[in-house]
TrEMBL record:
Keyword ATP-binding belongs to the record: yes
Protein keywords: ATP-binding, Hydrolase, Nucleotide-binding, Transport
EC number: 3.6.3.-
Lineage, uppermost ranks: Bacteria, Pseudomonadati, Pseudomonadota, Alphaproteobacteria, Hyphomicrobiales
PANTHER family reported for this sequence: ALIPHATIC SULFONATES IMPORT ATP-BINDING PROTEIN SSUB 2 (PTHR42788:SF19), TAURINE IMPORT ATP-BINDING PROTEIN-RELATED (PTHR42788)
A Pfam match: ABC_tran
Organism: Roseibium aggregatum
InterPro entries in the record: AAA+_ATPase, ABC_transporter-like_ATP-bd, ABC_transporter-like_CS, ABC_transporter_ATP-bind, P-loop_NTPase
Family designation: Belongs to the ABC transporter superfamily.
Keyword hit for Methyltransferase: no
GO molecular function: ATP binding; ATP hydrolysis activity
Protein name as annotated: Aliphatic sulfonates import ATP-binding protein SsuB
Record-annotated ABC transporter domain positions: 11-241
Length: 262
């Protein structure tokens, strides 16, 4: 039995295949329903199609076969608003923190003045309200990633797609941002789809982990992480956490081929 409440399906992937022009099959028959409020991680070795799946959900890439549907939108309830956070913060170095976070609104034609409250709100959300007039070069790696998250938040998304957002950060910063992310998810009721290589990170954050294998990219196992939220640092040192990490690690190693271990 799971303690996590099951909401309605937000996005549904049905039989997704992705074959690139050079013949590489990035995804084969990938199906996944993500429900409102879930924190789902895609976990797998390099090349198993995690980024391809996220890009297809975001509409940045078309599937070769299969469909992506947004049931609530189809029933006319609401438009899905997506936020996308990449591994690199990809900030404009010549622009201030404020201008970087304003960008998505600016692209929609919202003036600096009209955007001001929302940009400052997004910066306050990630703890950077005092850094609005700084430039990216003046910030640490963790702060740059916070700016990148604020830029995704400024459009007030319901669904957040995150592609290894913390992979380049040191462990302490990563743990801190993991906690902040869970706190923000709870506050705003986001649905999160998160790509990671890390068993430990996926268990800490997720309500469900989708374990993938490569060549061709496919789902080999889905696991519910049935530990209650809020999760805090004490969860990291609990027996329950170690047990989940072991199970997920075993599933992942079952997915590795000899070539992945090189
Ligand atoms: N534009 C492209 N053209 C050709 N092949 C591609 C392209 N993009 C990705 N691939 C290939 O598709 C497969 C899946 O790539 P993808 O980036 O989705 O995997 P991933 O699991 O996110 O990997 P990583 O963890 O290393 O980022 C890989 O074999 C990759 O080399």
């Amino acid at each position: 039995m799971t303690s996590h409440k099951k909401g309605p399906v937000v996005v549904s992937l049905n039989g997704i295949g992705k074959v690139f022009e050079n013949g590489t099959t990035a995804l084969d028959d990938f199906s996944l329903d993500v429900r409102e409020g879930e924190f789902v991680s895609l976990l797998g070795p390099s090349g198993c199609g995690k980024s391809s799946a996220l890009r297809i959900i975001a509409g940045l890439s078309d599937p070769s076969t299969g469909t992506v549907s947004w049931p609530a939108e189809r029933s006319g309830q609401e438009e899905h608003v997506l936020g996308f956070v990449f591994q690199e913060p990809t900030l404009m170095p010549w622009a201030t923190v404020f201008a970087n976070v304003w960008l998505p609104l600016r692209l929609k034609g919202v003036s600096r003045q009209a955007a001001r409250d929302r940009v400052m709100e997004a910066l306050a959300t990630v703890g950077l309200a005092d850094f609005a007039e700084d430039f990216p070069r003046q910030l640490s790696g963790g702060m740059k990633m916070r700016v990148s998250i604020a830029r995704a938040l400024v459009t007030r998304p319901k669904v957040l797609l995150m592609d290894e957002p913390f992979a380049a950060l040191d462990e302490i910063t990563r743990f801190k941002l993991n906690n902040d992310l869970l706190h923000l998810q709870k506050t705003f009721g986001w649905t999160v789809l998160f790509v990671t290589h890390s068993v430990f990170e996926s268990v800490y954050l997720s309500s469900r982990i989708v374990v993938m294998a490569a060549r061709p990219g496919r789902v080999i196992r889905e696991m519910e992480i049935d530990a209650p939220y809020p999760r805090e640092d004490s969860f990291r040192t609990s027996a329950e956490y170690s047990q989940y990490c072991r199970e997920v690690s075993d599933a992942l190693h079952g997915a590795l081929e000899p070539a992945d271990a090189l």
